[in-house]
Design a protein that fits this description.
The chain has helices at residues 3-27, 41-46, 48-64, 74-97, 100-122, 128-140, and strands at 35-37, 145-148. The longest helix is centred in the N-terminal third of the chain and has 25 residues, at 3-27. The chain is mainly α. It is rod-shaped, with a radius of gyration of 22 Å. The chain has 2 domains: 1-28 and 71-125; 38-69 and 126-149, no CATH class. The chain has a two-stranded antiparallel ribbon. The chain contains 6 helices and 2 strands; from the N terminus they run H-E-H-H-H-H-H-E.
Length: 149
């Protein structure tokens, strides 16, 4: 086995656990975040149960207008960015050592795995546009949203 093949095998051995970790982290995330209300007069009047129904209605309304709930596409974008940056950095180091191709390949794989994990984590976060839409909907119904948990 030549050194290039050995490098590819070690790259696969490094990247695969990172990608599996990304899937595991994404799959084990907690329930979707929901707005937290300031206890103003309106929420005290309607009660928590009605506030939850209104929140569900506003979230459904956002979805019906095509607002993405999560930061979709983060995994692929961050994996590609990580691959490019890892490949460039490791390839530059390889130019000095004389093994630029192998180093670039290893760096690209490591960067892609790291980017995929970061993208998987980020893709579970609520979209800022979704949050603003729901907050405005709730504000128009009399609620005061102070954050998301």
């Amino acid at each position: 086995m030549n050194s290039f093949s050995a490098t590819r095998l070690s790259v696969i051995g490094f990247a695969l656990p990172g990608l599996l970790l990304s899937v595991l982290i994404t799959g084990c995330t907690s329930a979707q975040k929901r707005p937290v209300f300031y206890p103003n007069h309106h929420i005290q009047t309607v009660g928590k149960a009605q506030a939850q129904r209104d929140t569900d209605d506003c979230m459904a309304l956002a979805n019906s207008y095509g607002v993405s709930t999560n930061k979709d596409g983060e995994i692929g974008k961050k994996a590609a960015t990580g691959a490019a940056l890892g490949g460039i950095g490791a390839g530059a180091y390889g130019l000095v050592r004389g093994d630029a191709g192998e180093r670039a390949l290893a760096g690209a794989a490591a960067g892609a795995a790291t980017g995929a994990v970061k993208g998987g984590i980020d893709s579970t976060e609520l979209s800022p546009t979704f949050k603003r839409f729901v907050q405005r909907c709730l504000r128009e119904r009399g609620y005061d949203v102070i954050g998301w948990e």
